[in-house]
Amino acid sequence: MKKLAMLTVKGAVGLVPKAVRNKLKSNHKLTEFYSRSLQRSGLFYGFPSEKKRMALYREYLKHQSKILSSNAFSGEANLDVTFIILGHKSLSTSLESLREASNDEIDIRVVTEKTIGVKVSQFSTLVDAVSGLDDDKFLFFLNSGDTITHDTTRVFANKGEEADLIYCDTDRVDVKKRRVSPHFLPDWNPELQYSTGYVFTGVKCKVKLVKQNTVKSQTIAGLVTELWLKQPELLIKHLPFTLLHRATNKAVVDESLEDIREILSDCTSAVPSFNSELGVNHLQWPIVSEPLVSLIIPTKNARNLVKACIESILDKTTYQNYEILLIDNGSDEKESTDYFDELNQHPKIKVLSYPGEFNYSAINNFGVQHASNKSTLIGLVNNDIEVIDPNWLTAMVGHAVREDIGCVGAKLLYSDGRIQHAGVVMGYGGGAGHAHKYFPRYHPGYIKRLIATQNYSAVTAACLLVKKSLFLQVGGLNEKDLTVAFNDVDFCLKVKETGARNVYCAEAELYHHESVSRGTDHAPEKAARFNRELQYLKTRWGNYIDHDPAYSPNLTLMRENFSVKTKEEFSS
Questions:
Q1: Which of 38, 132, 275, 501 could form a disulfide with 44 if both were Cys (CB 3.0 to 4.6 A apart)?
Q2: Which of 445, 448, 467 is nearest to 399 (CA)?
Q3: Is the alpha carbon torsion for 559, 561, 567, 569 positive or negative?
């Protein structure tokens, strides 16, 4: 019935004049509501319906149960910790859960300024709550109303003792007592924490961490952020199991994000702001003396595409200290070569000739070699990119100049407004693919991962910024083994191996008219080349394909939509 209703709605939307549709699409909340309705109906780009998602999660829970009952998790069942509960709402639910899960007398401390009518130790701040505890004692944090599972204490007691801080996945229990809405989290992801506070409950760490850092935080998400910023060498481990039932309300989320903004203001030079419409934090990192950016754009002919690309950069980009290097790979159409001659007269543009066979890696390496000696940053840009947000380069440069950041990628849209790229996930299709591909522009994605700036293992070179020094340090793009496909993924992973974090910058929005400029790889020779390059990726980066730290092992690799793995995927 839902599918029929949504098909009717989709048909009606198709009859609305295009100008009106575009106006409606600019309303984020309306677009999100429409997208979520499509999700629930099962018509959303292959995304499973709510009924199917619940079935997938039930199968996952059977899989999890088998793992957690294995020898790997045998041992002490009790978690020797002090439980710290933040807040007072539904406090009795949390207290009952903790007492049922422990056979021994347990130490529970509640942090809230409200007077509670329960016999339990109460404190007004986190610092007060831990002040009398032994430094080597462990703390376990949860929000008031959250409950633990029968596996929680045993799993936390047996895993991650070498880590400084450990967190787990969560789900909810609905009114019918069903486990629903799993939050399958990535491994530690600092930028995602800044943007969304994705680690906000189910956290274990030592007392001394809280004491020695004299924390100011009053939320769990803020505490995790503050500890990381004050001690970035912390070893943070993720347990990819749903071990806690969250009961988070909007107030907790808002308080967490506000707490994180205050911590970022105190501990970094970034300027944080809150996007109330999307419910995420935005950060603008400082740009000192506006470094020169060399934007490298390869092309063969394609005058109209190049014109749209370059004019959008020149006319719409707020950040002005850049040069454009247009690399002409054997253009033979007069209208294109004439236009390129015109461009070569522009003070910001140089047109360079790179004759011979198309080799994307070699062409871009050539461009970097000819970039200005004064340039600090390299931008790899496809000829079918078109600027949407004037601040795209400002946002990306802010990340790229940070000492601990490597490659920075943008949010790219197809011509019709659907997502083309929002970060690369390793393992999709056995190689790599694009997160949230084909989702609507304003959809929040899985746990806000489409609209939030965060770390991914790789981003696309269709629009990528990186320090020139780092580009040269890792040897640029692999022009021998990866002439067309996966060269950007390989490059990003080489950069990641230096210790730098790669970033998907959700604030930088551009069109990528990919279907216009790039043909398919169905021709026999192209298919053979693609398969060779895919095999190289699998051989060279098999560890990331087996487990991408920016993606949960419990999410599917068969589609680019963050749905839960199928029973067949777990069994294989």
A1: 38
A2: 467
A3: positive
Place of tokens 């777990």: 570
The answer as to whether 67 is a domain residue is no
Q: Tell me how far apart the alpha carbons of residues 363 and 553 are, in angstroms, rounded to a whole number.
A: 36
- Residues 309, 235 share a domain: no
Question: How far is it, in rounded angstroms, from Cα 548 to Cα 193?
Answer: 18
Is residue 281 in a domain?
no
Q: Which has the higher per-residue pLDDT, 572 or 103?
A: 572
Task: Report the chain's mean pLDDT, rounded to a whole number.
Answer: 91
CA angle 104, 109, 110 (to 5 degrees): 135
| pLDDT at residue 356 in the model | 92
Of 206, 251, 212, nearest in space to 88 by CA: 251
Q: How many domains does the chain have?
A: 3
273 HSE (CA, 13 A, CB side): 8
Provide the β-strand partners of residue 378: 294, 466
Q: Where do the H-state alpha helices sit in 231-351?
A: 250-267, 303-316, 334-343
229 shares its domain with 308: no
DSSP assignment of 38-78: HHHHT-STTPPPHHHHHHHHHHHHHHHHHHHTSGGG-S--S
Look up residue 332 and give its two tokens.
Answer: 């033979």
174 phi and psi angles, rounded to 5 deg? -85, -175
Q: Domain check: are 408 and 489 in the same one?
A: yes
**Same domain membership, residue 252 and residue 123:** yes
> Which residue(s) pair with 504 in the sheet?
409, 454
Q: How many CA atoms lie within 13 A of 425 on its CB side?
A: 25
Token look-up 């319906």 returns 49
How far is residue 408's CA from residue 400's CA, in Å, rounded to a whole number? 6
User: For residue 254, how many other CB atoms are within 10 A of its CB?
Assistant: 15
CA 490/CA 330 separation, integer angstroms? 26
Identify the CA nearest to 451 among candidates 487, 476, 423, 478: 423
- Determine the average pLDDT of the residues in 502-507: 98
pLDDT band at 33 (very low <50, low <70, confident <90, very high): low
Residue 125's identity, in one-letter code, is: T
Which residues on neighbouring strands pair with residue 272, listed in sequence order?
Answer: 283
Look at residue 56 and tell me if it is in a domain.
Answer: no
Q: How far apart are CA 451 and CA 436, in angstroms?
A: 10
Judgement on whether residues 494 and 562 belong to the same structural domain of the protein: yes
Q: What is the mean pLDDT of residues 460-488?
A: 98
Classified as helix, coil or strand, 81 is: strand
Query: DSSP secondary-structure letter at 566?
Result: P
CATH number of the domain bearing residue 392: 3.90.550.60
Q: Domain limits at 89?
A: 76-272
Half-sphere exposure of 300 (CA within 13 A, CB side): 13
Q: Are both 368 and 460 inside the same structural domain? A: yes
**Confidence class for position 517, pLDDT limits 50, 70, 90:** very low
Same-domain status, 230 and 259: yes
